[in-house]
Structures are given as C-alpha cells and as structure tokens.
Amino acid sequence: MKVLILGGGGREHAIAWAVAQSPRCDELHSMPGNPGMAQISTCHPGDPCDCRSVTDLAERLSVDLVIVGPEGPLVSGVADALRAKGIDVFGPGRDGAMLEASKAHSKSFMKRHGIPTASFTICTTLEEAKEALYSRKPPYIVKADGLAAGKGVFISDQLSEALESCGELLGGSLGEAGKTLVVEDGLVGREVSVMIVTDGNSYRLLSTSQDHKRALDGDRGPNTGGMGAYAPVPWVDRSMLQEIEEKVVKPTLLGLDRDDTSYRGIIYAGLMISPQGKIDVLEYNVRLGDPETQALLPLFDGDWLEVCHSCAQGKLSEVSWALKDLCSVNVVIASEGYPGDYEKGHPIEGLDHKEEGITVFQAGTALKDGKTVTAGGRVLSVVGTGPTFEEAREKAYTGAKAIEFKGAFYRKDIASNRDKPKEEGV
Ligand code: AMP
Ligand code: GLY
C-alpha cells in the first residue's frame, strides 16, 4: 500500500513509526512531515489544511490511504475532498470534525443525545454571559467556541475575572473563535482520555491515557500543548471502562448516526470522573491526542496500518489487535522559554542513542547542514515502556538524559502522581 500521513508533529512521527512497521506498507509519504519522519517516509512540503494541495499530492502519488494527524485539515474538509476523489481516509469529514471545531456544537450534541457533560449556556453577548455566570458558583468556566490551540478555556474563582475573560473573548481576543462562548458548571475529579477508533459501525478503544499540560513540575507554570503523557491510567479499572463505554462511547456513536454524520477515524473523549464516580465529557477531539499518541502507540499490538485502512473502508470489525500489558511514559523535551518565545536552530546531540524500551519521536526539529537542530517549542518526545510505571519512567528519563541541546528542558515528574487529581486549570 501507498500511504500519506498529514501533519508533522510528534503525534504524526509516532503514527508514521507505527505504520512503517506494517508489512502492508510499501510506500510511506508525509506532508509536511519532519526530519524524524523523513527517516521512514518521503516528506512533501505543503499545507495539509489546503484541500487542493492535499488532493493533488494524493492523486499524483496514487496513494491508497491518507491518515490525517491534526484537527486542522479535518476541519477544513480535507477528508471530504479526498473521499470525493475516491481516496480512502482515516479521519472524519468536516461535519464530524465540528465536534472539536465548535464547543457550542459539541455541547449541544451531548445534550441532545443524553451524553453526560457539565450543564452549560451558549452566549454571544456580554449580557448573556453575565447572566450565565451570575447563575453559577465558582469555579467559573468560560470557553471559546472555536479552535484556540489549547488557549480557549478560562477557569477562575473570581466572577470579575470570568467576566473579564468573556469581555475579551467577545471583543475578539481570539478572533472568530471567541465570538461565541460556552459558560459551564465547574466539575471536580480526575481526568482521563479515551481514544475511540470507529468506522461508524463498530468501535474499539485504545489504552486510556493522561497528559500533563503545565510547563513545570508540580503542575506549575503556564499551559502548554502538553509536556508529557502516560498510559494506561491505572485507576480506571475494567468496570469503570465498561461504564465509560455505556454512558459515553455508545451514545456518542449513536448520536453521530442519528445526526447522519458518517465518521471514520478517532474520537478522543476527554473525561472528568468525580470523586463519587460520575463520568462527564469535558470535550471531544476528532483525532489522536498529542502527546498521548506517542505513549499510546508503543502499547498497541497489531497492524496500525491495517486498522486505519479497514476503518477508512468501514470494515473495522474485521481487524483485531491487542494492547500490550506494559506501561508507557512520554517525556517531552522543550526549548527554553516555551510556551513563550524560544530560540531555534540549536544542534541536537544524542539522537542516535538506541536502547530497548526507549523510542524518540521528533516534533519541533529541522535539518541544517545535515544536522538535526531545534525548530519548535516542543522538540522531541522520549517514550519509555516497561512492565511497571517505575520502569517505564526510568527508561523515558534515561532516554531524555541522553539528549542534549542548548536550552533543553523537560518535566521531571511525568507519570509520578498517577492517582492524584489533575492540575487545576488548563
Ligand atoms: P476542554 O478543552 O474543554 O477539555 O478544557 C480543557 C481543560 O480545562 C480540561 O482538560 C480540564 O482540565 C479543564 N476544564 C474544562 N472544562 C471544565 C469544567 N467544566 N470543570 C473543570 N475543569 C474543566
Ligand atoms: N493532549 C490534548 C490534545 O491532544 O488535545
């Protein structure tokens, strides 16, 4: 098979790594890819959100399957454009991608289909937002409706601060994304993410996982795209997972079906589990998580290309796979200053370190004079796997220590507090 992967981050490198292991994979291409992906695929420059560029490339290469990594291309309708040309795609069309692209849409979807989620109000004016906030207690949760790269959720104990966030959003601080708001009840508990693979008829779950969003140890510092992740989440036992399937997964798929939304790809359900065990959906994403995927795919025991291809063809029920009975820890190495400004172009040493149980995925890297250099905030993911979390952490941190570049930093406490409630805020 000829396969094209869209995207160029750590998640996409992990997807490419998994696909490249498939005996079915004859040719692997990526757009735009990254230097890590270039070792196992042919990278093609271009904007994966541009439908025309993607369909032209896919046709020119005569690919059998396109796997979409990030949400951007899905929201811009790339999957629809490819399907219109008869090309199989792993990833939903634009209508399915609205589950992530619009929080007002996804909250209404949940309400309409009886999927548990925090009670909410959709607002488009400051008056409406005020009323929605006055009728609630702290913590006040304000969310921009549209895509905001993780910067669209505001949590505050102060009414005045929450109102200020509403004013700024409605005033255009996040552009169109904040012109509609969701104000909702605050939830407490522990968070867990569940990635559902579905072709609209059947579904299978990957391992549960959790990410670490804050920049610094102890869940301090600003929010980032994710400084690490681990899988599986140990406190989610079989019976809780069954309840998640009954209360969230099945109603979500039924809801899509009732709405006539054909969906082939991943649904990422971000869940909050209260101390009493109540399950609520915080959000949906329409693709694999980053940095969760880098931790999840090393636990996957099967043929990932076969899964994506069968799913894209609506034949997911024909494939089977197992999840390895291992623990996985992904430590992200970032550039000093991230998530604020950071320098680029520093040479990265130690990338050739090879050790059983350690896998390095590249994200913000570039090639300069034949050398791999830093080119982004989150530069690399170092993933350790082992029979226990202690061993997986040991591997991940051994791998992280072997890598050096000027200004490199990473959290030292990834997966160390696996039973604690997650950090507050986002
Ligand atoms: P979302 O993008 O909606 O998942 O929100 C991002 C993060 O904000 C979540 O992972 C939670 O940590 C936090 N969050 C979102 N909604 C709520 C809520 N209703 N109550 C408490 N925390 C929330
Ligand atoms: N790690 C959160 C996300 O991928 O959206």
TrEMBL record:
InterPro entries: ATP-grasp (IPR011761), ATP_grasp_subdomain_1 (IPR013815), PreATP-grasp_dom_sf (IPR016185), PRibGlycinamid_synth_ATP-grasp (IPR020561), PRibGlycinamide_synth (IPR000115), PRibGlycinamide_synth_C-dom (IPR020560), PRibGlycinamide_synth_C_sf (IPR037123), PRibGlycinamide_synth_CS (IPR020559)
Keywords, sorted A to Z: ATP-binding, Ligase, Nucleotide-binding, Purine biosynthesis
One of the GO BP terms on file: 'de novo' IMP biosynthetic process
Pathway terms, separated by semicolons: Purine metabolism; IMP biosynthesis via de novo pathway; N(1)-(5-phospho-D-ribosyl)glycinamide from 5-phospho-alpha-D-ribose 1-diphosphate: step 2/2
Record's keyword annotation contains Nucleotide-binding: yes
Domain ATP-grasp, chain residue ranges per copy: 107-313
Cofactor: Mn(2+); Mg(2+)
Pfam family, one: GARS_C
Presence of keyword ATP-binding: yes
EC number: 6.3.4.13
Family per similarity comment: Belongs to the GARS family.
Name by which UniProt lists this protein: Phosphoribosylamine--glycine ligase
Organism whose genome encodes this protein: Dethiosulfovibrio salsuginis
